[in-house]
Every structure is written in structure tokens, then in C-alpha cells.
Design brief:
The complex is a heterodimer. By secondary structure, chain A is α/β, with parallel strands linked by helices. Chain A folds into 2 domains: 213 residues, Rossmann fold (3-Layer(aba) Sandwich), CATH 3.40.50.300; 72 residues, 2-Layer Sandwich (Alpha-Beta Plaits). Helix content of chain A is 33%, strand content 28%. Chain A is built from 10 helices and 14 strands. In chain A, helix 3 packs across helix 4 and helix 4 crosses helix 5. Chain B is an all-alpha fold. Chain B has one domain. Chain B is 70% helix and 2% strand. Chain B has a two-stranded antiparallel sheet. Chain B is globular. The mean pLDDT of chain B is 92. The chains are: A alpha/beta, B mainly alpha. The interface between A and B is medium-sized, with 30 and 20 residues.
Chain lengths: 295, 256
């Protein structure tokens, strides 16, 4: 069962659809990143997925429970930060804010858990200061601490590294990779594609309120790119080779997975001139730019 | 539920509008008891400390207390939206119905807290005039401030307590209405204004005599007409529950 399942999700304000027919799944242990230009619908998806907003079409299931029909029961396994920087009661200290959230989530031994997550996010030094005096970055770190407080099985984060310094960004990426390693399903929206591609499993590229493309990263199999004198025909030929997988055209190059010698053999037999062959290290940012401008 | 309610009260206490309102409610009777123009403007000479809380109640219920209640009740939800803390609360495994119900309870507590402070301020200010029996009235019983003869301290206190409790009850539907509007607009100012506008519009409906017994505004001076307390309190309770229910139902499917 997917940890998070989004099916044909749509949101309309008046006659205008801001989000249409978005579907994707996040499995336990996967990190799914939503990328797209401003206004493409990332935050709307985050609000819909967390149950803060209600869809005009489609549905969202968290561990099998419909977020909008089963209400708070569906949110028992959810941890989320939906605003950057995360908001807290300014008259309370960071520790008091987290203690109240721990109480609302029914966390066992809340004092110890609060201390643990504050240490993990390196905000323990300011734990007893009022949040009103926190910097933007400290509030964002506290927000992420609040999100993982109840040991959720699904984490949803809107721009989790917003307002953080490079050290903080690294810390958050490290933490998200660790959480995914523990089997937590992570959905996040981000503009930091190059950094995120180190631990993200899939990227959903949004444009104009639609899911334009879904890129699977870290599939395990190495990918190759080959440049020939006739890329279109070469692509068509390689698609017929049983040993090759995921054959597709990208500009003047043909991408594929599988043994490169099989591709070379087929291309030479087909009379193609091979101009270049090499490993394709996926540049998510370049791909994103290509898809968004193309979309 | 009790802990949740106490937390809501704590949040209420930290709201600026609530603190300002509390200060105003406490200081109003003290200022009025010292006002040099009381006799000139109202033809009133304070002869007993029991008259001071009544004076504060009459002055406050004209506009100040309904305004403060509408403002603070709207802020119970509106301030959370403005601070951005509503979303993190809604992300926790807590039902929206429970959240609004607790906020509503806190908002319904506020009128009594506000009037309680005004009463304390009134009693403190009344110390200068003494709390013995006197010939006259508290302003809240038969004969107004002139009274109908000798009034014992116990009877005066009973009149004042009854009037303050009835005044608190008349403010409950306003608080519930403000919470309902807050669940619609998610904004303190818009909700408080909508509440006051609704009350003003309702006051205009007196031109339809058949509606008068059913109007909320007909009972806003119930504290001066304790003989109408039976039907009045029933109607106020219906309005309060109705507005509260609307707030809960509306917020259940509200995009935040």
C-alpha cells in the first residue's frame, strides 16, 4: 500500500482550475519532490494533501485513509510544515510550543522527545527562549522539529529549506534522507533541485497546475546516452532491442539503460555512425528547465 | 477537553484586544465614579457604592462591551490565522469540530470575564461611597437610581449580580456570531465588523413588529428587564447555539 496516494486531484476557485488531474504515489521510504515555477500549484497540492484545503476533484489517501473524509484519523501518521517560516505562538518558548504539539499528537514521554528533536535540529540552545526572538532559520528548524516530533510515517514539507543558511540546508537534506531510510514517505516542494537530487526518489514537475512529468531518480540501473548521425531512427531501433530499457530521445541524444555493448552492436548493425557514447549523469535542474520551458 | 479549553483561555489572555478590553472594563467604573459631570449630564448623584457597578454596566453595555466581545471573539480564530498558527494546529490529529467547539467555549467565557472585571472595578471604585444600606436604587432594580425606598446591602448585591449575569448572557450570541463570522472570513476585523453590522441591521428590523419578539436585539437590555428573563434567555440560548453550530459546520469544510 502506498504511504501517500494522490488521485486525479483538482482544485478550482470559481471557474478557474488552479490544479487539474494530478496523480502520484509516494511509497514508504521514498522521497518525492514537487518542482515547478511559482504559481504552478505546489503549495496547493501540499495544502490539499495535508487536509488544510478541500479538493474540487479527486482524492488523497494517507496510509489508506482518505484525508478529507476521515479527517483527524487520517492525520495521525502525518508530520508537516506547510509554511515558510513555520509559525509558532510567539509568547511561548520553542520548547513550550513543541510540548503543546506533542500533547496534541499524543506523544509518549513528550519532554524527552521534544529535547531529542530539538537537539537533532540544533535548536536546543534556544529552546527556552520565546519564539518571538527566533531568527527565520531557527523558526524553520523548529518547524521541521515539530514535523518529526510524533514520529510520523508520512512527512509533507513545503520548501523545508527556505530561510536556512547552507549549513541548515545540508542538515535538513541529511535529516530527510535519514527519515526516508527509516521508511518514512516524504513529500516536499523545493526549488533546490540539484541538492535534492542526491536523495530524492522521484520528482514531479508541475506546470500550469498540471503534473507535466514525473522523473524517477535512483532507479539503480545506470543510464547511458548515445549520439548518432540520425537520433530519431536510432531511438526507434534501440527500442526494439530487448536488453535495453527506458529508451527515449533527449534532444540530439538517445538515452537508455542496459548493457551499452548491446546498443553499440545494434547501432553498428543498423548502419549508424556513433559519434559519442557515455554514462548519463542526470542533471535534474537542466531537465526541469527543459520540461518547464517545453510545457 | 478541559486542558484544550484551558489552553484556549491562555491564548485568549495573550491577545492584545483582550488585554485592552480588560483594562477598559476595569477602569471604566473607576473613571465614571470620579466623573465631575455625572450630575450635570445624567442628573445623578452617587449615594452608595452599589450604584457604581450599575453605572459602569449601563455605560458599557451601550456599545463598549458588545464591541469588545465581538472583537475578542473574532480574534479567537482570527489571531491564529494572522499568526499562522492555525495550520500547524489543524495538522495535528484533532478534529475541526472539537477545535471550533473549544474556541467557541473560550469566546463564550470572555463576556463573563470582561463583566467580572468591570464588576471588580466598580466595587473597588464604590468603596469611597460605602456599601451600607441606603435610600435609593442601584440603577438596576425597581425605580432605577431613585429606587423605591430603603435598599439593604444584600438586596443591592443580589440586584447587581443578577444584572451582570443577565448582561453576560446577552453578550453570548454576539460572541458566537463573531466566531461564526471568523470561521467564514478567517479575519478578525472583517468578522468583528460583520458582527456589529448584523446587530445594527437587526435593530432596524423593529419596523416589522411581528419580528420584534424574535430579534436578538430585543433582549440586549435584558439585564434591565429581569421579568423577561424566561423567554429572553431561551431565545439568547437558541441564537448562541445556532451561531455556534453554524461556525462548527462551516469550519468543517473550510479551506485554510
Amino acid at each position: 500500500m502506498p504511504a501517500l496516494e494522490v488521485h486525479q486531484l483538482g482544485k478550482r476557485y470559481g471557474r478557474r482550475w488552479v490544479l487539474e488531474k494530478v496523480s502520484f504515489q509516494v511509497e514508504p521510504g521514498e522521497v518525492y519532490a514537487l518542482a515547478g515555477p511559482n504559481g504552478s500549484g505546489k503549495t496547493t497540492i501540499i495544502r490539499l494533501v495535508t487536509g488544510l484545503a478541500f479538493p474540487s476533484a479527486g482524492w488523497v489517501r494517507l496510509l489508506g485513509a482518505n484525508v478529507h473524509e476521515e479527517g483527524w484519523r487520517a492525520r495521525r501518521e502525518l508530520g508537516a510544515v506547510v509554511e515558510a517560516p513555520a509559525a509558532f505562538y510567539p509568547h511561548l518558548t520553542g520548547r513550550q510550543n513543541l510540548e503543546r504539539m506533542a500533547w496534541m499528537s499524543g506523544v509518549q514521554d513528550p519532554a524527552a522527545r521534544v529535547r531529542e528533536v530539538m537537539m537533532r535540529l540544533e535548536v536546543i540552545a534556544v529552546a527556552d527562549q520565546k519564539v518571538a526572538g527566533y531568527s527565520l532559520g531557527q523558526r524553520q528548524r523548529l518547524g521541521i522539529a515539530a514535523a518529526i516530533l510524533a514520529r510520523p510515517r508520512v512527512l509533507v514539507l513545503d520548501e523545508p529549506t527556505s530561510g536556512l543558511d547552507p549549513d541548515g540546508i545540508g542538515k535538513v537534506h541529511e535529516l530527510l534522507a535519514e527519515e526516508a531510510g527509516r521508511g518514512v514517505a516524504v513529500l516536499l516542494s523545493t526549488h533546490h533541485l540539484r541538492e535534492a537530487s542526491g536523495y530524492v526518489s522521484k520528482v514531479g514537475i508541475l506546470g500550469g497546475g498540471r503534473l507535466v512529468d514525473e522523473v524517477v531518480l535512483q532507479s539503480g540501473a545506470p543510464r547511458y546516452r548515445v549520439r548518432t548521425n540520425d537520433p530519431r531512427r536510432a531511438s526507434a531501433l534501440l527500442k526494439t532491442v530487448p536488453a535495453l530499457d527506458g529508451v527515449r530521445l533527449r534532444g540530439e541524444e538517445v538515452l537508455f539503460s542496459g548493457p551499452p555493448e548491446e546498443a553499440v552492436r545494434a547501432l553498428v548493425a543498423g548502419g549508424f555512425r556513433i559519434l559519442e557514447l557515455g554514462r548519463d549523469y542526470f542533471d535534474l535542474y537542466a531537465y526541469y528547465r527543459e520540461r518547464v520551458s517545453g510545457g | 477537553m478541559v486542558r484544550f479549553y484551558l489552553w484556549e483561555l491562555e491564548k485568549l489572555y495573550h491577545l492584545k484586544s483582550v488585554r485592552l478590553g480588560a483594562a477598559a472594563a476595569f477602569l471604566l467604573p473607576i473613571l465614571w465614579s470620579l466623573a465631575p459631570g455625572l450630575k450635570k449630564v445624567y442628573g445623578l448623584v452617587l449615594v452608595s457604592g452599589w450604584q457604581v457597578p450599575a453605572l459602569a454596566l449601563l455605560a458599557g453595555m451601550e456599545f463598549l462591551f458588545p464591541f469588545l466581545v465581538a472583537m475578542s471573539a473574532a480574534e479567537v480564530l482570527g489571531a491564529e490565522v494572522a499568526m499562522g498558527t492555525l495550520k500547524p494546529v489543524l495538522l495535528r490529529p484533532i478534529s475541526r469540530t472539537r477545535l471550533v467547539a473549544v474556541k467557541l467555549l473560550a469566546a463564550l467565557t470572555y463576556p463573563f470575564a470582561l463583566l467580572g472585571l468591570s464588576l471588580v472595578g466598580g466595587l473597588l471604585a464604590g468603596v469611597f461611597h460605602g456599601f451600607g444600606g441606603f435610600y435609593g436604587g442601584t440603577g438596576l432594580g425597581p425605580g432605577g437610581f431613585a429606587g423605591v425606598g430603603y435598599l439593604a446591602p444584600g438586596a443591592a448585591l443580589a440586584e447587581i449580580l443578577r444584572a451582570y449575569l443577565l448582561a453576560g448572557a446577552t453578550l453570548l450570541p454576539l460572541a458566537a456570531l463573531a466566531v461564526f463570522y471568523a470561521s467564514v472570513f478567517l479575519s478578525t476585523t472583517a468578522s468583528a465588523l460583520a458582527t456589529l453590522a448584523t446587530v445594527l441591521l437587526m435593530r432596524m428590523l423593529v419596523v416589522f413588529p411581528a419580528l420584534v419578539p424574535l430579534l436578538l436585539t430585543t433582549y440586549l437590555n435584558l439585564y434591565l428587564q429581569p421579568e423577561k428573563a424566561g423567554p429572553g434567555l431561551l431565545l439568547l440560548a437558541i441564537y448562541t447555539l445556532g451561531f455556534g453550530l453554524l461556525a462548527v459546520l462551516f469550519f468543517e469544510k473550510k479551506d485554510v
